[in-house]
Design brief:
This protein is of the alpha/beta class. It has three domains: 93 residues, Urease, subunit C, domain 1 (Roll); 113 residues, Diaminopimelate Epimerase, Chain A, domain 1 (Roll), CATH 3.10.310.70; 208 residues, Metal-dependent hydrolases (TIM Barrel, Alpha-Beta Barrel). Helix content is 34%, strand content 21%. It is built from 18 helices and 22 strands. The strands form five sheets. Strands 8-9-10-11-12 form a five-stranded mixed β-sheet, with helices on both faces. Helix 1 packs across helix 6, helix 9 crosses helix 10 and helix 9 crosses helix 11.
Length: 505
């Protein structure tokens, strides 16, 4: 289900002189409440009925963006809490922890590959900086974390779990234990503030819909319920703090990452959580940065490991079969090439047990798909699977000297995030940020998709815009009045179905 706030509905309005991507000349767009009623050239707009006319003189107008993969509370905590993305050394991280206020220190964004010697601070050093407070500091990929002893002591089952180490970063099950405990340590007011901050921030970036990827390993039912309720609730005051109309919030489409075995379980879990589907971060594997993505061949910089596999193959198959029969969208988080093959094979087996038509109708999703090859892309296209991908991953970690090359070697790294191959095979692309892993920045995402670090892997701007706007780059007559106005990368206005979400000035 979609959740969106009741903001003010804009009156019948004629926007004249806008520039629409892919449309020659200046255009006019007539809006009536939640719908677009007419579009045409600007010089044909004089006789159109409207309560108000705005002359926009070449202002760029696009459909509002859809971010297909977000983590709202964690992203809001990055806005309101401890941002470690700029830390250049363990010493800087420890200083930031020592200066952080509050009884629980939640931080995100450290990346040891960018530090001299790639040395992590010890748990003893972290304990000293924290002053006996519980500390949770997620790596940039959110698949490992530095934690204090005080947090470990509050998280039963952490010591000795898969991914446990007495010093350094925790991964796998040990990481999931401490993350759940840290989230539980946030009081509702902190959570609400973080969610509100994230939704306002997304709207200010021209985003009118976000897909929250929740689950028992990444957030929790209470967190998802609070977010869906917040998106449904009344509008909030203008972010500038000045007098003016209340504005709405972006729509939230919730996904819940938990495996089921029967159609009845799938329907019941969707009803209980309010989720649109049982997809998103249902982890088949981890991440390349934390060396937990499941690979067919060992890591170049850690030849004793091929990563981690979190779900058995029969679990994948039964989950897709159950969701298909229930008419519920299924999906998985897959990054490594071995994990991708497991997911593709599972969806094919589900189609054999149900039907190709039923699987296609469900429009199952795979998140990230960083190491997918052309053959797998063709198999996914035949089954109608949507690829929820993040072009900014390539901008951050691609290229001959990036993290991908360090983990995999330059040859394997060249095949990462093959957007052009997925599009050429006929796979539907849905662009997102995976925030807080990469920022909510739609135009940076478009640029990353159109200027891939690997030659031949880029897509054109029209394809990229469609992938980031739910398939509709510009407003069209008869469609929803969901749009954004732009001055270069600066969002001037975000509107969803005629309801104001954000306005600059």
């Amino acid at each position: 289900m979609d959740h969106h706030a009741e903001g003010p509905v804009l009156s019948r309005t004629l926007l004249v002189g806008v520039a629409l991507p892919g449309v020659p000349g200046r255009a006019a767009v007539e809006l009536d409440g939640p719908r677009v009623v007419w579009t045409g050239p600007a010089d044909a707009a004089a006789d159109r009925p409207a309560d108000r006319v705005e002359q926009l003189d070449g202002t760029l107008m696009t459909s509002a963006f859809v971010d297909a993969h977000v983590h709202a509370t964690a992203s809001g905590l990055l806005v309101t809490g401890l941002d470690l993305t700029g830390c250049g050394s363990p010493a800087e991280l420890l200083d930031a922890v020592a200066a952080a206020p509050g009884p629980l220190v939640w931080g995100h964004g450290w990346e040891e590959d960018r530090w001299p010697g790639a040395r992590l601070p010890s748990r003893t050093e972290l304990d000293r900086a924290a002053g006996a407070r519980p500390v949770y500091l997620s790596r940039i990929d959110v698949h490992s974390a530095l934690v204090s002893t005080a947090l470990v002591d509050r998280a039963p089952g952490t010591v000795g779990a898969a991914g446990w180490t007495p010093d350094g970063a925790l991964t796998a099950d040990a990481h999931h234990h401490v993350r759940r405990t840290a989230l539980a340590g946030l009081d509702p007011a902190q959570r609400d503030l973080a969610q509100e901050a994230f939704l306002r921030h997304a709207a200010s970036r021209g985003v009118a819909e976000v897909h929250e990827c929740a689950g028992p390993e990444i957030s929790g039912e209470e967190d998802l319920a609070a977010l869906l309720q917040r998106a449904d609730g009344p509008g909030h005051a203008c972010s500038s703090g000045s007098a003016g109309p209340a504005v709405g919030r972006p729509a939230v489409v919730g996904y819940w990452g938990e495996a089921v075995r029967t159609p009845e379980q799938a329907r019941a879990l969707c009803r209980r959580t309010g989720a649109h589907g049982l997809a998103g971060d249902l982890f088949v594997d981890g991440s390349l940065g934390s060396r937990t993505a499941c690979l067919a061949a060992p890591y170049l910089d850690a030849p004793d490991t091929r990563g981690r596999r979190y779900l058995a193959q029969d679990t994948l198959v039964e989950h897709v079969v159950a969701c298909t029969l229930a008419g519920v969208r299924a999906g998985f988080h897959v990054i490594g090439d071995a994990a991708v093959e497991s997911a593709v094979t599972a969806i094919e087996e589900a189609a054999a047990r149900t039907s190709v038509a039923a699987v296609r109708a469900a429009a199952h999703r795979l998140e990230h798909l960083e190491m997918v090859d052309a053959g797998q892309a063709g198999r996914l296209a035949a089954l109608g699977v949507v690829a929820s991908v993040q072009p900014l991953f390539d901008a951050a970690w691609g290229g001959p000297t990036g993290m991908y090359a360090a983990r995999l070697g330059e040859r394997r790294a060249r095949g990462m995030n093959p957007l052009a191959a997925l599009h050429a095979a006929g796979v539907e692309l849905a662009f997102g940020s995976d925030t807080p892993v990469t920022p909510v920045d739609p135009w940076a995402t478009i640029r990353a998709a159109t200027a891939h670090r690997t030659p031949g892997s880029s897509v054109g701007e029209a394809v990229a815009l469609a992938a980031h706007t739910g398939g509709r780059p510009v407003p069209v007559a008869g469609g929803p009045a969901t749009y954004a106005l732009w001055d270069d990368d600066r969002c001037l206005r975000t509107v969803r179905e005629g309801r104001l979400l954000h306005r600059t000035g």
